[in-house]
Amino acid sequence: MLPGASPPRGAESVRMSWDPQAPGVLVLPSGRLVRGRALRRPRPDAADPEFGVYLLGKAPPPMAWESRWLRWPDFRLPADRARAAELLREAWQRSGAERVELACGGGRGRTGTALACLAVLDGVPPGEAVAYVRAGYDRHAVETPWQRRYVQTFL
């Protein structure tokens, strides 16, 4: 492309921040990449995130990168839904230019629910977001009926 020229119509401005083939990385329709993971398992042998949202019933230990804690008990919903929406929007926005990760203890229920909410923010219809995450992240993601309902009513 010539200096000063506009990018081609429809060209993605999203940079590839994670390896899209790496375990736990969900590719959103826009091309944004977000990593989900289980905090009870060893950290993947990959670059550290630049931003993380941790979905736990109690505060996580300090991380070496910028992070936020969202109080979210296991098998439940976020304790503060307005704060959840705020943090998930921030994660989605930052995923366009940074390595973003979402994580809970097991990496399936809460993490899958949060990833499905990011998929909704990225344009996936709420009724299809759980299936999208199960196909692209973990077939067991989003574990409870109330987590599925939460995704359907997220926006």
Automatic annotation (TrEMBL):
Pfam short name (any one): PTP-SAK
Record's signal peptide: none
SUPFAM superfamilies: (Phosphotyrosine protein) phosphatases II (SSF52799)
Chain coiled-coil ranges: none
Keyword terms of this UniProt record: Hydrolase
Statement: the UniProt record of this protein carries the keyword S-adenosyl-L-methionine: no
Matches recorded under InterPro entries: Prot-tyrosine_phosphatase-like, PTP-SAK
MF term (GO), any: phosphatase activity
Domain of life: Bacteria
Annotated Swiss Army Knife protein DSP-PTPase phosphatase domain residues: 82-127
Listed name of the protein: Swiss Army Knife protein DSP-PTPase phosphatase domain-containing protein
Organism of origin: Actinoplanes nipponensis
Upper classification of the organism: Bacteria, Bacillati, Actinomycetota, Actinomycetes, Micromonosporales
